[in-house]
Fold this protein.
Amino acid sequence: MAAIEIDGLTKTFGDTTAVDDLSFTVEDGEVFGLLGPNGAGKSTLINMLVTLLRPDAGTATVNGYDITEETAAVRNSLGIVFQEPALDEDLTGEENLAFHARLYGMNKRERETNMGEVFELVGLTDERNGLVGTYSGGMKRRLEIGRGLLHEPTVLFLDEPTVGLDARTRRDTWEYIQRMNEEAGVSIVLTTHYIEEAEQLCDRVAIVDDGDIAAIDSPAALKDSLGGDVVSLAVDGPVADVCDRLDARPWVIGYETNEASVNVTVERGEARIAELVRLADDAGVAIRSVDIHRPNLETVFLSLTGTTIEEREATGDSESGTDGESERQTGSMTRRTRTVTSEGTE
Ligand SMILES: Nc1ncnc2c1ncn2[C@@H]1O[C@H](COP(=O)(O)OP(=O)(O)OP(=O)(O)O)[C@@H](O)[C@H]1O
């Protein structure tokens, strides 16, 4: 049985369609990532799956239970770690978990056994009697993740599990999340806007933008779908003339431009740098710098939505920009985006 099955789930707030007719399945035992900028609709989707929000349309099951018809069974099947920390800092680690265990109606024996296992799993056995207020940020996060597992759910939801943690602690936390998945055998659904987190942790990733899913696949397959390296030229000058020249080169798999840069997808990027520089030169465009990027999930996001996660968060722009040529007003700057694939202009 699939861990989660989603069919046409939709939620609107006034004029905003936060989640727009989504359908997909999370397999049993998977670490599944929802990757997208703030405001993409990830939390709204999770809140519906954990029965905190009622969908306007569509259905979903968690562990086979319907999220609107069987809410108690759904809640017993899942653990959740919210984006905002929710620990009592004046209590010890153990007292925090014991409180949660009582909420789930666990008896003393179950409580003690499960707490022992959870503290072991998240590496806090020695600190279980310390006040949570004295824990580091990473320890608190681990305690919360462990708490989500205490009642032995089959699915664990982690909403931005490492937001606010430094890079080192973030990596440590990934290791603990992997352990949960492998040792406790729990399916994990996490939301993130960190590219590296999605790449490192997830078996499959859904690219979420503007309430919609642009693609779902393993990180490797998503990257392979771009079919090459991206050579980025930072430029001064009329990029339209560069586009005409790129269109005439059969080895160009695709490209994306704005007024300050040209990003060209090619195989073996290093072998094409000289030609690309010449091509820009012929078009009368000055080059300020050249970079080669191996595809990552950021470039996948860019190719699917016409913008990066960072840009999307900076502008709060919810409009997709990949329908052929599009012009978008971004503050005082008009950006021109044009995406071409090997099949032609999209
Ligand atoms: N309770 C609400 N009332 C009105 N609008 C909401 C509400 N909750 C979410 N939204 C809107 O729905 C859209 C999706 O928000 P959501 O929080 O699901 O995104 P997100 O991808 O989880 O981002 P974040 O990580 O910042 O929470 C946003 O435009 C948001 O402003």
The two ends are 38 Å apart (CA to CA).
